[in-house]
Amino acid sequence: KEKKEKKEKKEKKEKKKKEEKVVGEGVVVSDDDEECPEPIDAGLLEELTKHHEEIDNIDKSNRERIFKISKKYYEQKKPLHAKRQEILLKFPHFWATAWANHPILSAELNGSDEDLFTYLENVVVDRNEFESVIITFTFKENPYISSLKLTKRYDIDAEAGITPVPCDDLKWKEGKEPQSEDEDDMSLLSILFGDDSVNTESLLTQICEFWEDPFEIYRPDELGEEEEEGEEEEEEEDEDDE
């Protein structure tokens, strides 16, 4: 009887070995590929949580300082941006051309938007990453909208994300207001300055990035030529030095 029990016990062990494969350290995977990780050490988890809390506290305590530095940095750039705007407006059809050349923003134009945006005269972004983004579009006289200057504010919150502040700047001329309620067919102006139900976070990010260096989109070839000329001049100087 004792021999029989030992034999059965041995057979059970061998059967279990066949059914299970040990993968890595402390993880057992059976034939049905179900992972059975060992329980997490409560002490390690508590220690890890404590360190994460300390990191979060540092972020919170420095948030105001970061905000002040960011605001100061932005204020320093403001007069330069204003001067840049004056220069850009001297280029023929600058903003209309730059927008049309942008691979993503140009694709956002629907229906009559394409013709309307040929009248785009100026784009201004007043951006404070910790508070808000204010965008202003200025159009020349056109057959579509009677309100030639459109301004919209989007408040920024770390938890709530971007929240549009309602505005009523957008005024369409009689018979020109797009009727589609489908987001894919809506006018870009309606999305940015009208309908607050549409998520515009990705679009705003693109506009802000576009505004930071629009000349690269307006005439990318010319910037490339200037860089090449600069490199050639440096190479010539190096050869002369040799």
Q: Could you characterize the architecture of this molecule?
A:
By secondary structure, this protein is an alpha+beta fold. Among the domains are: 56-90; 92-218, 2-Layer Sandwich (Arylsulfatase, C-terminal domain). It contains 8 helices and 7 strands; from the N terminus they run H-E-E-E-H-H-H-E-E-E-E-H-H-H-H. It has helices at 2-19, 42-88, 94-101, 113-116, 188-193, 201-212, 215-218, 220-241, and strands at residues 20-23, 27-30, 35-37, 120-128, 132-139, 149-157, 161-165. It has a 4-stranded antiparallel sheet. The chain has a 3-stranded antiparallel sheet with strand order 1-2-3. The radius of gyration is 31 Å and the shape is elongated. The relative contact order is 0.08.
The mean pLDDT is 78
Strand content: 15-25%
Distance N to C terminus: 98 Å
In CATH, the topology of the domain at 92-218 is named Arylsulfatase, C-terminal domain
General shape: elongated
Q: Helical percent range?
A: 40-55%
Largest sheet: 4 strands, antiparallel
CATH class descriptor name of the domain at 92-218: Alpha Beta
**Rg (C-alpha, Å):** 31 Å
Pfam families: NAP (PF00956)
InterPro entries: NAP-like_sf (IPR037231), NAP_family (IPR002164)
GO biological process, one term: nucleosome assembly
Biased composition (Basic residues): 1-16
Record keyword descriptors for this entry:
17% strand, NAP_family, Arylsulfatase, C-terminal domain, alpha+beta, 3-stranded antiparallel β-sheet, NAP-like_sf, 242 residues, Nucleosome assembly protein
